Amino acid sequence: MIAVLLPLLAMSSPWWEDYDIRDRFLCGERGSLVVERNHAQASLVSGGNRITLFRESSNEPGLHFRSAAMELRLWGDDLMLEQGARKLHCIRTDQA
Fold first, then answer.
1. What is the tens place of the pLDDT at every residue in 54-78?
2. Three-class HEC string of the chain
3. What is the Cα–Cα distance from 14 to 25, expressed in whole angstroms?
4. Is the pLDDT assigned to residue 5 strictly greater than 70?
5. Nearest CA among 53, 77, 55 for reference residue 67
6. 87 — phi, psi (to 5°)?
7. Please, what are the domains in the chain?
8. Which comes out higher in pLDDT, residue 13 or 61?
9. How much is the pLDDT for 55?
10. Is the sign of the CA dihedral 7, 1, 73, 16 positive or negative?
């Protein structure tokens, strides 16, 4: 999978993206990551990398964001990342 599986390095989003929610997630042995989001998009921060995903509507529960290469689903404290056939499950740890 991409750098999502690497340990989190501190990064901050540019002010103009106006992310009002920031959560930290643990992904088992794969390390941790931060998801910053607003009503229209989310930014996944991990391993010194940042991936921007855009909100999409869905009949399934939770929030859904997608980029060309990845899908992010957030439902309560559970985060699921999918990249092709690979899936990564993460659990919210606290407010970042």
1. 999 999 999 999 999 999 999 999 9
2. CCHHHCCCCCCCCCHHHCCCEEEEEECHHHCEEEEEECCCEEEEEECCEEEEEEECCCCCCCEEEECCCCEEEEECCEEEEEECCEEEEEEEEEEC
3. 21
4. no
5. 53
6. -130, 145
7. 3-8+18-95 (2.40.128)
8. 61
9. 96
10. positive
Token pair for 35: 């998801």
CB 96 within 8 A of CB 22: yes
Calpha distance 31→47 (Å, rounded) = 9
Tokens of 47: 């391993």
Q: What are the tokens at 34?
A: 């931060």
Can you read off the two tokens belonging to residue 82? 């999918």
Determine phi and psi for 60, rounding to 5 degrees: -80, 155
